[in-house]
Predict the structure.
Amino acid sequence: MIHYCKTIGADEGADEVSSIGEVAEASDGGSVKELGLTEGKSLTEGKSTCGDIGGNGSTAEWVRSTTSGGTVEGCDNDPVINQRTPLVPVKLSIHLGGQTLWVDCDQGYVSSTYWSAICGSPECKIAKPNTCSNCTFNHPRPGCNLNDCLNTPGNPFIHTLYDGGEIAVDALSIQSTDGVNPGPVVKVPNFIFTCVPSFLAEGLASGVKGTAGLGRNDIALPSQLARVFGYPKKFAVCLSSSTSSRGVVILGDGPYIMLPNINISKKNLIYTPLLINKVGTGYVPYLNEPSSEYFIGVKAINISRKSVPINKKLLAIDKNGFGGTKISTGKPYTVMQTSIYNAVSKAFAEALAKVPKVPPVAPFGTCYSSKRIGSTRVGPAVPSIDLILQTQRVLWRIFGANSTVQVNQDVICLGIVDGGSSPMTSIVIGGHQIEDNLLQFDIPNSRLGFSSSLLFRKTTCANFNFTSRA
């Protein structure tokens, strides 16, 4: 299996880039771009999740842990990705809309099968580089070679770009699955990735050496593995809500079988179009290319089946790429533009008017005594939140397990964060809101399939069979 570690760090109230700040020269001639955030709140909780990804229906296991103060203390002891020759485990953070798998090559990168993609080569053309360059160090090494092609990977957790990432090729091993049982380990001998200096890995969890991009473009994991193994360019994400159990990412098509023999089949999913934002919204906004991230068309929001009055213009993507709704593993909680956030918070409080509020706990603004709220199979007994999609009959219903956060023993809060008055994306659906929901990203057909809460099916994302044949 490809192992990965997903981290969600602090200071992530809004991930949209409104301006690009100073550019500092890196030691190898590349440049670092600190992305200035003009709006947004700080999150005080860091989260970390670890696991493995594998290939024709490749699987990914997921372990989630939380710490206070925005410091991530690392993950479990599982290896994360097996790369290089000889194979070594490398921990990575998952980045749902990421354009590439990038790895820190400064810290002991040794491999007999590594080679840099020469400018004009097929690998460079697939990667669509920014430019070509000659590294100025005295001798070639991973990340620094003559006539290599460069791209611009980003670290979403510290809002930083690096335009000197060397496009490179090396071996990678993954474990397959048929959707029911784990299968044999298989090898990808020529996997395209990006080699970067150590500073780009700052802000990641302890021991994490890069990010695994699952975005739309041609060198992200879904695209590359689909080409190698010949399966459809689809993948499913099912994140565990548990701090001790694993979730799953399946690269390729289903079936998706959860213990005890519960089939989350295609007919059990609700489908909505995946939209393409024609303006880059990630961490390379100046390249004038479509976003690699995943947008959906939210038309309205209901709480307890009553419409929330919001500015519908903010829900559409305008010609400059602003607005709309995307799904992001780079945010621990859903982030909303201020006016939407205020309207949703007000409507939620009105629907829960019989329960008195308590002082808010940052970064949340609407909190209650957990002793005054009952429980259901799908979490705390609070008003449901519906994201209305292409019609009133197609909706993503968010129940208490996903809409609220238990911030301490006595307090529960609405798990939505104020993203400021002018974020680039109006609504960013964060990691907490998609836990124990199976999401299938069907890139060729440009559609998202989603299950809503698996708790209704008496299963969770932790119930995939990772270890033995059933």
